[in-house]
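Re: beginner question about structure tokens

> Can someone show what the tokenized structure looks like for a real chain? I only ever see the sequence side.

Sure, here's an example I had lying around. Input first:
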Amino acid sequence: MFEGDFKAFWAWHDLGSFLTALGIFTVFWSVVTYFMINNSYYVEGIGLVALLTEATLGLPQLVRNFQRKSTTGMSIPMVLAWLAGDLAKTAYFVAKSSPKQFWLCAIIQITIDCLILGQVFAYRKNTNAELPFSNSGSPDDAGGITNESNVETDVD
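And the corresponding structure tokens:
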């Protein structure tokens, strides 16, 4: 099912391997939760992990934009929709006097949204930056996928 470098963990080669890993993960954590459900530290910990996971969903996009120094292909309305949703959620948390960890995670989400919007403006002139999976000259960079603009051709 999984062999080699952990960086390739999410590079599934077939649906069966993914479903097997997902099944093992689900069964394992279901059993652990069954036995730990009365432990308040465990329940609070699971809740915090869930909140932090949701709060950092935009982080890979933020990092990828920074690495490429480009937001080519990003939809500004989509990021604005993220921001609007996160602002509405935060307002709900404040209005309902939700626990502080909800506020903290909402602030993290809003911060990431604003940073991505800042990247849209900061990198707006970098429209020709390389997209992911394009070949930048190294065969290891893209796993053998080539960008046609980098391929030399003989045309008479």
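Each token stands for a local structural state, so reading them left to right follows the chain. The first helix runs from residue 15 to 36.
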